[in-house]
Amino acid sequence: MISKKVYISGPMTGIKNFNREAFNRASLELRIAGHIALNPARHPVGLEYGEYMSYAMLDIFNCDYVFLLPGWENSPGAKREVALAKQQGKELFNFTTNQSSLRNSK
User: Fold this and answer.
1) 15 in Cβ contact with 73 (< 8 Å)
2) Most buried residue among 6, 27, 51, 58 by CB atoms closer than 10 A?
3) What is the pLDDT of residues 39-48, one digit of tens each?
4) pTM for this one?
């Protein structure tokens, strides 16, 4: 069975430790389900906003699915990621409601 590459999208700016706990928890869930997690929280602290977004856009071009963390709709960056994912025809999953669907989509 081929693993799917799944990008994790969600709010980071203005959240304690850039919301890394939520991103890393989602990354773990995806890896347990057999997927390749493309986790933006893997990047070091200290880059410029535009640099983070350029990495995100590249990951979205290369992913199979996008996994949405709670609160993504309140994040300008996550909304940009979702818009690009939709343009690319990527399937979107909500972290809280579609975890079992992702487990079955390998």
Assistant:
1) no
2) 6
3) 999 999 899 9
4) 0.89
